[in-house]
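Researcher: Structure for this, please.
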Amino acid sequence: MKLWTMAGVALCSSVAGMSMSHANEIAVLNYYPACDYSVVGEDTAVKYIDIQGKLVQAKDVQPVLPQLIKTLKTKAKESGAEALALTKRNVHKRESGKASVSLTGQFIGACKNHSKLKAKATPLNASGSPQELVEMSTVSIKYAHTIELTDTIKTPELGDNHLIAPHGSLYGLKLSSSYEDVVERFGTPVFEFAPASGIRVLAYGRSHWLWFKNERFVRAASYSDTFKNEFINHLEFDERFDDRNWELPGQVHKGDIITPEQIEQFNLLAAGGDARLSLVTEQLLKNNQQYTRTEVTGFTLQSTANPVKSQWDFTSIENEALREFASLLKQKHEDELIDIRHVKAQAIGQSRKNSGRYLYLYDANTLVEAIGSSVAEISVSPDLLKSAGKQWKFDQFYFGQPLQEVMNIAPDNVFHYRDTVELEQNGYFATLFLNDNNGEQTVYAMKISVM
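Model: Predicted structure, token format:
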């Protein structure tokens, strides 16, 4: 693993407009590195402030955030880190006229750079403010396929075959191959999704999605037509696939600029057989929008004998997991952990182990991150799946809830600033994300950090 260079830091922090002028300067990130980075430490900085009235106001908190960030940058530098990711902000009312403001950060160390890839947003931006979780026929289901991903991760070399062939093969592996043969050939997927009986979807990195029907390989695509970018940005990269320069018939490669004649030739070569191979392109405007260029950006390889759906209706299990998590949080004692293995709701998707962490998808709106077997964070958002419903509810909070109602039922330590509300209760720290609904702020998404 190579050291994270200054160029890598500047890339990952481009949204904040930062650049590193000195090799030993600690950058505060808006996005995690787009790579398999290391976390060399974590710490919390705390400062006590004076407040006016019963509620903590934004004007009380904002002035101390730069001081807390400066403290964390110093601690990150002492730990040998190269950057700081702010992960949690807590505002807690203490005795009369006092409150504590705490800021937690991860110290980011070594990283293998992936300059072409998109990264996951950090929970807080470089200024310490929360960031919103970042961008057909249906079949109703009750129970999903059992998912069993072991801690043993296999990443075999893919070999020199880069061709996606019209007769139905991906890098030499044919459609109709068994699930076992695919996993043996390609290794452990970063995520497995089982939305219905007999259906599996394997994600190899963020750019290769393989579908199975009754344990047979029936579809491959370079993009997901099931998940939105907000969900995909949570997934681990697999450079074997994400960096792969795949080839299509007619000597067409990923990233090529092609002509209409080449597209016509491709369509002729891809026609016929038991599989349908499709080309995905993007139009690029050039020379002050006077003409366009067509870039090859993706592919779809589909068995014509075994078509599969890409979107499902999860209404029957909607909020089932959220009700259980809300109940578990109310019952838990201080410093007690919630064991993901004891959750009765069944996950419909699970990631492989990544830096000790796992992801569990429970329905169209609920994504849970566990450290080992302990629940660490629950993300609730209608922007995970393209077919997501928006009627989520967690404890007293729900999608579309008016801000005033939130403020009325929230505990005294509630903190409202612009489009976020922060609060602490029942063994968790929560951030509610708001959007504008006909001139009124209402709840859109929620992130729960288990304490």
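Researcher: Any notable elements?
Model: Confidence is low (pLDDT under 50) at residues 1-23, 113-118, 133-146. The CA atoms of residues 71 and 415 lie 23 Å apart.
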